[in-house]
Amino acid sequence: MPDKLIEGYREFRLSDFEVQKDLYETLGKGGQSPRVMLISCSDSRVDPTDIFHAYPGEMFVLRNVANIVPRGDVDTRTPSTAAALEYAVNVLKVKVILVMGHESCGGIDACLNGIEGRYVGDWIRHLTPARDRILARGLTGKDAQTELELEGVRMSLQNLMSFDFIAEKVRDGELILQGAYFSIISAKLLMMEQTGAFAEVPPSAD
Ligand SMILES: [Zn+2]
Predict the structure, then answer these.
(1) If we measure between CA atoms, which residue out of 37, 67, 39 comes closest to residue 169?
(2) What pTM, to 2 d.p., does this model score?
(3) Does one domain contain both 104 and 182?
(4) pLDDT tens digits for 52-95?
(5) Which of 3, 85, 162, 178 could be bridged to 73 by S-S, CB 3.0 to 4.6 A?
(6) Rounded to the nearest whole angstrom, what is the distance from the C-alpha of residue 36 to the centroid of ligand 1?
(7) Are residues 19 and 102 in the same domain?
(8) What's the 135 CA to ligand 1 centre distance in angstroms?
């Protein structure tokens, strides 16, 4: 195993774990009951537990290239995503599913400009409807990149509603779907409003 990982593990054992020992014991014995499921990109720069300062047991996280939720009613090739959603909603009974896009997303870039590789190409094809909407607006370059990063979040939220067990709980008021966007350079977090627009969350509560 690379030395950096061993070093990191030892640091975790001697610092974070020591401080949170009781929490780990409670979670290990009593199981998890996170209220939030977070869907974010696999990108190494957007770690949701860092961004939301979350403790172990707080968030059930699904990460994939470009934080995509494919449709549940027409697509059967994404059992991993569907299984994570089903487990979070039906077994853990999370109250919120938050889909978070981000700045400079490589998956979004690949969707707009192409990429070598069969598997990534197959995966980001799920974004085609969103990409077509962006291109139809005549956007190019950085504008198209940013707009597709946002539109991808809107699309994934719509696709979540194509899963029966999710749509039902949303209608019953037992589950909230929320979109977000993280800007890496400034660490700004934007939340999606009812209108589909994204607004910045003030960094301070004052
Ligand atoms: Zn990304």
Answers:
(1) 37
(2) 0.95
(3) yes
(4) 999 999 999 999 999 999 999 886 668 899 999 999 999 999 99
(5) 162
(6) 20
(7) no
(8) 19
